[in-house]
Amino acid sequence: MSTGKNKPAFYPAYIDGEWIDTQDRIQVDNPATGEIWAEVPQCSVADVQHALESSAAAQPAWQDLPPIERARFIYGLADRLEAEKEHFAKLLVMEQGKTLNEARFEVDDTIRYMTYNADAARRLEGQIFPSDLPNEQLMIFKVPYGVTAGLCSFNYPLALIGRKIGPALVTGNTMVLKPHEATPVTASEFCRLVDEVGLPKGVVNMVPGAGVEVGKALVSNPIVKLVSMTGSTRVGQAICAAVAENVTALSLELGGKAPFIVLEDADIDKAAEAAVVARFANCGQVCICNETVLVHEKVADEFTEKLLAKVKKIKLGDPMRNIGMGPATTPAGLARVERIVAETLAEGATLACGGQRPAGAEFEKGYWYEPTVLLNATRDSTAVKEEIFGPVLPIVKISGYEEALEITNAREDGLSAYLWTRDYRTFMHAIGHLQTGTIFVNKGIVGYIQGYHNGHKRSGLGGEDGIYGLEGYLQKRTVYLSCE
After folding, report:
1. Residue 291 burial by Cβ neighbours in a 10 Å radius (0-12, 13-18, 19+)
2. Residue numbers annotated as active site
3. Which residues pair with 420 in a beta bridge?
């Protein structure tokens, strides 16, 4: 990182163990103020090719290292990240807009992602099956794909690196990272740690740039054998098309529209508390956030009253001071929120709170929006149909579980859902029939590293975390061995 007087700080790309600058640069702004504070290279297609060739050259020797040796490098990265936790947390606040406490938690999560997968170095398993003939062995080995590409979203720019790098590296793959163009700074600083721990050059490369050029060049290149991407369904569909010619393996964690279902026998106090946290954490920019409340008509008024009392206590302010909720990360994200609210109100919903940029000089710049609750929404309201990815919560009254199930399963996506009920028959039925990758039953938003994070339908392919996420970075190789 370099700085100059009155100039944005510069954070380079990282290719083949070298720090790279380019003629063109991407400017990074602070979501709280809109001010430009950093720059990174705008990498080219040629830079992508260089990075991929570097990763391809490094991969065979990296694969040949015993897994525990690969794990030692990952532990080293985690240790250095722990030592610089506050530095990385403040960078996250400046480039992404989350509060300082949320940023510290993200750094902790990143460390957990890496150490969990490093711990698996001695648990990478194959299988042996009996042969149909004597003096034979039938074995299934699990081997790395080779060169992988990791594309990260802007909402968790550091944690998503750890989520992908940990399992990719411990299983013997190399990876070329592409951070989101709005949040590339922590990726550059992470690569500084990569350099400091002495990872062999080419094992990790990082190429910032626009998705249209750099992202497409990366995922469509035949050198890449696996693409791991976190982002929108639209981008995921474009990646599917781009990799079709090479039949590249995919792990896509895409968008969703999690319903927060509250039935008449729910614990209303706990449900209201959980609904607020699950909607307004990280300014609503979490893929598994509560995107729509579907509340039983018999308890809707009570639930709404308690929820609104909590929402109105959320304070906005400088995220570095941990006021409560920070801004949206990008101007495009803010514009999307403003459009969805305007359309939903025009369709007949009513505004219970929020619905605008907060007042005051502190909020005149940056991408601020008040915590917003929309009442009298229907299943056809824009805010109910579209993923908001921002601090807006529509509330829809329902007649019961069957209606909630029908609304949820009618969607083309299926990432997550929340269900609040004391009736074990209802939640057991939901486990079998709610078409989502994750179901939170009487539980607020959470994600444990030993779990599995995946979507159904248009919410993705493959998944991440836990033993199944680790398996996603390994392909199977069957061996018929004659001992005669």
Report:
1. buried
2. 253, 287
3. 262
pLDDT in tens, 362-392: 999 999 999 999 999 999 999 999 999 999 9
Burial of 313 (0-12, 13-18, 19+ CB in 10 A): exposed
**Residue 420, SS3?**
strand
Q: Which residues of 142-158 are buried (b: 16+ CB within 10 A; e: fewer)?
A: bebbbbbbbbbbbbbbb
Helix H or strand E segment including 268: helix 268-280
**All residues at 6 or more sequence positions from 454 whose CB lies less than 8 Å from its CB, including other chains:** 253, 437, 438, 460, 462, 463, 464, 468
Residue 135 CB-density burial (10 A; 0-12 exposed, 13-18 middle, 19+ buried): exposed
- CATH number (1.10.1420.10, 3.40.605.10, 1.10.150.130, 3.20.20.150) of 2-254+459-480 reads 3.40.605.10
Residues forming beta bridges with residue 206, ordered by sequence position: 14, 177
CATH architecture of 259-448: 3-Layer(aba) Sandwich (3.40)
Instruction: Give the torsion sign (CA, 90, 96, 102, 108).
Output: negative
H or E element that contains 115: helix 100-119
**Signed CA dihedral, 390, 394, 400, 402: sign only:** negative
Tell me the domain boundaries of the chain. Answer: 2-254+459-480, 259-448
Whole-number Å distance between alpha carbons of 365 and 465: 37
pLDDT score for 311: 98
Q: How much is the pTM?
A: 0.96
Q: Are strands 36-41 and 7-10 parallel, antiparallel or unpaired?
A: parallel
| Separation CA 268–CA 293 (nearest Å) | 13
pLDDT digits (tens, 9 = 90+) for 77-130: 999 999 999 999 999 999 999 999 999 999 999 999 999 999 999 999 999 999
